[in-house]
Amino acid sequence: MKLLVDAGNTRIKWQLREGSEIRLAGSATLESGDLFEGITRTEWQDIPSISVSTVRSEHARIELERVIKGYTATPVRFFWTRSSFGRLTCAYEDPSAMGADRWHALVGAWHEIQGACAVVDAGSAITIDWIDAGGQHLGGYILPGRTMMTDSLRQGTARVLFDAGQAEGISPGQTTAECVFHGVNWLTRALAEQLGRDLAVPVLITGGDGSLIKTALDNYQDSRIPLVALRPDLVLDGLALVGAE
């Protein structure tokens, strides 16, 4: 049984896996007080391997390791972006400069597709990466995610005042909150439509706002994409593969 941890900028997602079976899973913030709620003392004693993929600061990484060590003496292994994994090759000249979550999502996608594909991770930031048919990572884009966009408007504009929350739809807003959230939804749809115009390869989507990207792609009639699939565990899937080496 292995503990896999995906420590993102906002939330930390984890799974206990035995082989390919997910025995237990959870998601929380580091400050929640019980990050690994549900894992029993006996299960902690039976965990021989802990693998972590993180994009958090070094201070936050150390704190996460401290929290884990409060439960178990099992060594914690952090996995970072590498120049290659099997036939998959990173586009970055300096792989360490690429977020580990992006790399592990690419590993998971390449393992599943074994061919040209794109990976969209819609989390705090939205990242889009391409792999060609031979496993070469072609690079990608990094954009602000939905929450980051709304937070930047709230913090950076003194007179754009709106309550926290979300408004559905993309029609022109008639309140400031609608203007903000409908605008973000409109941009999300525009991003999906651009992908639909540009791509003719399978697209795997992960991240907390992944379902919004998938819905927009599914509704885009002119798309040439042969497969649009939601893979919420894609980073953990890739982490499991690199951690098994």
UniProtKB/TrEMBL annotation:
Residues bound to ATP: 6-13, 124
Residues reported in the UniProt entry to bind substrate: 92, 99-102, 176
Any Pfam family hit: Pan_kinase
Tagged with keyword Transmembrane: no
Pathway given in the UniProt record: Cofactor biosynthesis; coenzyme A biosynthesis; CoA from (R)-pantothenate: step 1/5
SUPFAM superfamilies on file: Actin-like ATPase domain
EC number of this enzyme: 2.7.1.33
Positions of K(+) binding: 121
Reactions catalysed, as given in the entry: (R)-pantothenate + ATP = (R)-4'-phosphopantothenate + ADP + H(+)
Quaternary assembly: Homodimer.
Role noted for this protein: Catalyzes the phosphorylation of pantothenate (Pan), the first step in CoA biosynthesis.
Protein known as: Type III pantothenate kinase
Annotated source species: Marinobacter lacisalsi
Organism lineage: Bacteria, Pseudomonadati, Pseudomonadota, Gammaproteobacteria, Pseudomonadales
Gene encoding the protein: coaX
